[in-house]
Design a protein that fits this description.
about 300 residues, alpha/beta, Arc Repressor Mutant, subunit A, D-Maltodextrin-Binding Protein, domain 2, 3 domains, seven-stranded mixed β-sheet, two-stranded antiparallel sheet, 11 helices, 11 strands, about 45% helix
Length: about 300
């Protein structure tokens, strides 16, 4: 396929993403009529409708689903070709697409991006913060090169690059009564109000699993998909929230907060997984960044404390 013909594939991909010819045309800076004609040309060549029109926009037909998967695979392959060409003169350009858990977005990923761009300043990053289910979907749709997610669901399309253990920690205001303890049990935390991430997050799933077999019950006074909001809330009162260890890196250095690990007796551990689409050869820039992440994650692996450590 000639490279000049990739434009129409981009057009179709954009329409599929937004579900509207008019909105896609605005984003692509073309007229809706021109965009519609290009789609109709493709439908004529395929002898099949790509989109089904309805009152609120358009959606892919079965034939369109087949075509869009091919388009996204072609785009991913083309980016890999560009990457290999760039390799001939060193890694000068490129784009890295990452889907990651909110827990690692601020405290970990940003720092790693800055380190990478010191050596490769012209490489661009596209970061999508999402839960583990959507992150896996983005791999399958070729919207992400790699993902870094906590407790991913098992999927045949997923290939693990590296998995490191992460423990849960409790986060509270520095003057909280429990801040004096080195480790905490979930039953200790149940004596205070609790603010939790919503149920789409892997850390929340661990807490729910542990509480199901425990006599401890939480009084959940706030539930949100924003970790920043959780931090702001517990800083202002005696409530407690929870985070995986790597997600608490920024808060550990903030004197307003106390970060305390949960005791191994509560089994507060889960895998933080760096992965990619199985069978896909990553573009050079993404492959090099994945190598950098792997080295750093090995240093941040959370190991269970000794079984003879004193219980809180």
């Amino acid at each position: 396929m000639a490279l000049r013909n990739m434009r129409i594939w981009r057009y179709i991909d954009e329409v599929a993403r937004v579900g509207s010819v008019r909105q896609a045309a605005s984003r692509l800076n073309v007229t809706p009529s021109a965009l519609l004609r290009r789609i109709q040309d493709v439908e004529y060549d395929l002898n099949a409708a790509v989109f089904e029109r309805h009152a609120s926009g358009v959606q892919l037909t079965a034939a369109g689903e087949v075509l869009i998967h091919w388009i996204r695979r072609q785009n991913a392959d083309l980016r890999r070709v560009y990457s290999q060409i760039e390799e001939l003169s060193g890694l000068q350009l490129g784009e890295i697409r990452i889907a990651c858990s909110q827990a690692v977005a601020r405290s970990f990923i940003i720092k790693e991006i800055l380190e990478f761009q010191k050596l490769h300043p012209k490489v661009r990053f596209h970061i999508t913060v999402s839960d583990h289910h959507k992150a896996l979907q983005s791999l399958i749709a070729y919207e992400s090169d790699v993902v870094l997610i906590f407790r991913p669901s098992l999927a045949a399309e997923f290939q693990t690059i590296l998995s490191v253990g992460q423990g849960l920690v409790a986060i509270m205001a520095a003057d909280h009564p429990l801040a004096a303890q080195e480790t905490l049990r979930l039953r200790d935390c149940s004596l205070y109000d609790v603010a939790l991430p919503d149920r789409s997050f892997g850390g929340r799933e661990i807490i729910e699993d542990r509480l199901a077999s425990s006599s401890a019950k939480f009084n959940v006074v706030l539930e949100t998909n924003s970790f920043d909001m959780l931090a702001d809330y517990v800083m202002s009162n005696h409530a407690i929230t929870f985070q995986i260890d790597i997600g608490a890196l920024g808060w550990r250095g903030d004197p307003r907060f106390a970060v305390r690990p949960l005791h191994p007796a509560d089994n507060p551990y889960g895998p933080l997984v760096l992965g990619q689409l199985k069978g896909r050869t990553l573009p050079l820039a993404a492959a090099k960044f994945a190598e950098q992440l792997s080295r750093r994650l090995e240093d941040l692996r959370t190991l269970p404390m000794r079984e003879d450590a004193p219980a809180a």
